[in-house]
Amino acid sequence: MAESSPGLRSAKWFSGRDVPGFVHRSAMRASGFSRMAVDGRPIVGICNSWSEVVNCNMHFRGLADSVRRGVLAAGGYPLEFPTISLGEQLMKPTTMLFRNLMAMDVEESIRAYPFDAVVLLGGCDKTVPAQLMGAASADVPAIVVTGGPASPAVFGGKQLGVGTDLWHYIDDVRAGRMSMTDYDRLEAAAGPSRGHCPEMGTASTMATLVEGLGMTLPGTAAVPAMDSRRLQVAEECGVRAVGLATERLRPSDVLTREAFDNAITLMLAVGGSTNAIVHLLAIAGRVGVPLSLDRFHELSARTPLVVNVRPAGEHLVEQVFHAGGIPAVMKSIEALLHTDALTVTGKSVGDNLPSVPAADTTVIASLDAPFQPPQGLAVVRGNLAPNGAVIKCSAASPELLVHQGPAVVFDDINDLMRRFDDPDLDVTPDSVLVLRSAGPRGAPGMPEWGQLPIPTKLLKQGVTDMVRISDARMSGTAYGTCVLHVSPESAAGGPLALVRDGDVIALDAPAGTLKVLLTDAELSARRAESGGPAPKTPVRGYAALYVERVLQADRGCDFDFLVGRSQNPSDEPDAIFDGWVGGW
């Protein structure tokens, strides 16, 4: 038997001539693998989040086969392994509740097995950040293959974004402008293929940011899911994974402060999902990179919107792909990027950028002629959000970004669903809708409830937007003047728990402020009276662990015990691998 390459992590499993080495090689033989699996070539894990209950990821078996071809062609040996899969549409109460669980699954699977590198197959919203969090903590060489946007739906002669346009049609049904017959026709047309949402929702945003972070090959994010070039991308990533293994280029080498700056800048340039803020904070926490909401606010002040894609624009991600993809976007904003940042190609961001600009300036603009000016995202603070909250200005109504109005308060999601249709609800277009008990601990899991529905009686009057405030998140496909991620949340004692109907709330997004017009003494008196609604507390299982250990939104909603660099997988005790003792 050939000796394993001394620099390979897998050599610890397979090169020894003792009991552990015998058992490890024998286990591979028992699995049906030939001597090639243990003869010293790099072993590449294929981390597959395929599932039949996650339509975004259902085509991943084909992608895994393409990765496998690339690994073999480059002289490596591929081994596929599953993880839990998080599907936004079917998984309840919310996929965000399980992001950290998947991250733990990915981390420990990578750490525990003899992988020299891993290829991460992710698609739906939380799968990609979960995989990045896990891979960052395991710190074994890794590269990401995202699933790609689904084919656009067509309804009434118009291409649809799965979420963005659906929200419009739902409001039409509620206002009586759309028949249930047409609604049924829309349902039949809305999902024509596998792949993630075709607009710049959370999945497309995270795929984009994987490129911005330097954790995949350039040009991968926007390739449509059903396009044959998606398979080619997967094969090329399999080839590159073997190179990462031999070069020992780790996530910690790529995920630097400069890489996070690039990802945030790219998120702002494409009008990406606010959910990415929470995910980037969590990923940064895993590699020890200092990152706070302040950095998002600072970069927003200089970064305009240069991509005309829904929900902040007109087009779908497929049109972004045909206009040059994310490399063309990064070329457009090159002056704002750290071009010397390292990527998994082994080259810098600048070396990877194309030499030509975007093919269609109606889709990808230049910094000199953007679609919207800087400040597409605002971080707001005040006595309602001492640790901060966020608002996506690029998808909000400009006239509402500075607004003052009386609060209409909903204690939780059940209270909201009971009352928003009530014709006697005391609400006007100037009211500020407030939802609490929807944060990481309060819901739990911080669901995407932040785009509160416009009360039906106002919708029928033609009202299309209002100021809405919550400790929840919002779908990346959604839009509206929604203040999100209020921190600390109401269930953690945040002042959102103290707001009452009729309190006047003042939002000034350009100035970065959010406050209720009450004195500190008045708020303290209310806290002394009751402290607000009592949060629900799970008593067993994963949900109980989550509520006990989850951090607030301004820190990424990771578990407190997972933040920071972890043990290097190469530091395992030698006795696990060497010698003639029993057990392995």
Could you please describe the fold and organization of this structure?
This protein is α/β, with parallel strands linked by helices. It folds into three domains: 41-151 and 193-352, no CATH class; 154-189, no CATH class; 377-529, IlvD/EDD C-terminal domain-like (Glucose Oxidase, domain 1). Helix content is 34%, strand content 13%. The chain is built from 20 helices and 14 strands. The strands form three sheets. It has an eight-stranded mixed β-sheet with strand order 7-8-12-11-10-9-13-14. A four-stranded parallel β-sheet has the order 2-1-3-4, with helices on both faces. A two-stranded antiparallel sheet has the order 5-6. A hairpin with a 2-residue loop joins strand 7 and strand 8 (385-392). Helix 4 (96-112) packs parallel to helix 5 (127-138). It is globular and about 75 Å long. The relative contact order is 0.11. The model has no long low-confidence stretch (mean pLDDT 93).
Radius of gyration: 24 Å
Number of domains: 3
End-to-end distance: 21 Å
Helical fraction? 25-40%
Shape designation: globular
List strands and helices in order, with pairings.
Blueprint (H helix, E strand, L loop, with lengths): L10 H4 L4 H12 L12 E6 L11 H14 L3 E6 L13 H17 L4 E6 L4 H12 L3 E5 L6 E3 L2 E3 L3 H11 L5 H10 L12 H12 L14 H20 L3 H4 L2 H14 L4 H13 L5 H8 L16 H6 L2 H8 L16 H4 L24 E6 L2 E8 L9 E9 L2 H7 L12 E4 L20 H4 L7 E4 L11 E6 L16 E5 L4 E4 L3 H10 L11 H9 L35
Parallel strand pairs: 1-2, 1-3, 3-4, 9-10, 10-11, 11-12
Antiparallel strand pairs: 5-6, 7-8, 8-12, 9-13, 13-14
